[in-house]
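Appendix B: a complete holo record

For completeness, this appendix reproduces one full record from the ligand-bound portion of the collection. The bound molecule is fe (ii) ion. The inputs are the chain sequence and the ligand SMILES; the output is the full three-dimensional arrangement of the complex, encoded as structure tokens. No fields have been trimmed.
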Amino acid sequence: MSAILNQTPARPTIKPLHPLYVAEITGIDLTVPVAREDFRAIWAAFNEYEVLVFRDQPFTDETQIAFSRNFGALETMEAHPANNFKPGHIAVMTNLDALGNLLPLDDPGMLHRLRNEAWHTDSSFKPVAALCSLLSGRIVPPVGGNTDFASARAAYAAFPEARKASLEGKTVIHRVAAPKAIDDPAYNEEQKKRLTVTHPLVRTNPVNGRKNWYVGSHAQEIIGMPPEAGMALLDELTEFCTQPQFVYSHAWRQHDLVIWDNRCALHRATTFDKTKYRRKMHRTTVAGTTPDSALASMP
Ligand SMILES: [Fe+2]
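The structure of the chain with fe (ii) ion bound, as generated:
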């Protein structure tokens, strides 16, 4: 009898890591094909918790891409200095060159990646913004290099009700260019034109109906407001969302996989001693759909 019980496959177990959002999921190997029933549990947790942490997932690029496709079609990155203008489905966040040597701090790719240290949400400058990002820790420094997350959903729930009504219908201009740098040299004119888009200031999760501010460093103007006033309001909302009670800081272990919902969670890279330690993270990004209601059911 016990032998039969022992053959029952383990099911994923979900453990919250923060009072408001973020969960760790154990009991599943994501580097091999995931059963549909198990992905259903992951999809439900993704909509509920915004940020999911999985430990001990030694991905290759191929297995990371295969798992990521459970969430939908993958984005191809934009060409920029940090990918040597040769983008694919894997974005590499690293301070190493192709031979594994530390890059100088003034390397164009290193300078480009500094923009990840501002609070943002991935690909909000695209007409169809990202659904989620999946970041795999391949080489992690012994100290520093955390990824910080902020729940713009919990922040929306805590925001003064009296002000929500006047902000609800507003539309925001998002740009690929770095904040307050319209002449950002990292992108060419075609990219800057194509990657200037509008999105609603308030987004609603199609599964549970919970709302959030959709802000961050690419959100740079509000339609119908003077540019300075719109920027000031967007800065205020991003600051509100990133207060300590809404933040979870992920300290990486090698082979961690962290998945976050770009529709409602903000994130930023944090620094580490880039002249001493090595860090290499591989990211896949799943394209969203528009309108949101198209994702009410599991992909
Ligand atoms: Fe990012």
